Amino acid sequence: MSPTAPRTAVVTGAGSGIGAAAARRLLASGWNVVLAGRRADPLEHTAAAHPAALTVPTDVTNAGDVTALFDAAQERFGRIDLLVNNAGTFGPAADVGELALAEWDAVVAVNVTGAVLCAGEAFRRMRAQRPTGGRIINNGSISAQTPRPRSAAYTTTKHAIAGLTKSIELDGRPHGITCTQLDIGNAATAMMTDLGTATGALQADGTRRAEPSFDLEEAARAIEYLADLPASASVNQLTLTAAGMPFIGRG
């Protein structure tokens, strides 16, 4: 691969939120970007007819869809240098005693199975690119470290992302594959609106408190920083939170 050749990224959950912001920033920085998400229209809106963008409607819980996504990426651009493993869902607001099996299964399907399927496809293709390999960025969330109240399903699945990231980083060593767990807290997304962070999010002591947030562009900038690291460097974990949010010492 020529040192000046455009690099290629696959971004899941690219139709909105952090995924959309990251896809737009990578496109602006000269990357080829393959945008994946369940619905075609939001992907097309994010891509904005950019010549280096490819939109592929994908259900990350479906192994066939995931394989087709990576096949399309390779057919169009030849190789895959980066996976932004971003697709996720918060699921129900419930403690473990209230969590219905169907709700649990739905959150696991996206946050764990979907992440594993995408990482597996990326890993196999990056491994075949030796010695250049590639990089995987897993969107963990600060709930991979410390839970919000009544977030049993989301928190448990995001803790699983920590294990996935460490396993990829270890198993990818011989193949030039690195992996980062990016834990983001209170980026201004629709999920934060649903949690009521602007008006009063549930706290561990039972009160509700408005919480600060930060612009999505800062999350995208963090992803761009990780993506642009040389192959000789790896950030195993990066935590990015809104200044002053109740995370350090949450409880």
UniProtKB/TrEMBL annotation:
Keywords: Oxidoreductase. SUPFAM superfamilies: NAD(P)-binding Rossmann-fold domains. It comes from the Bacteria. InterPro entries: NAD(P)-bd_dom_sf (IPR036291), SDR_fam (IPR002347). GO terms for molecular function: oxidoreductase activity. Belongs to the short-chain dehydrogenases/reductases (SDR) family. This is NAD(P)-dependent dehydrogenase (Short-subunit alcohol dehydrogenase family). It comes from Zhihengliuella flava.
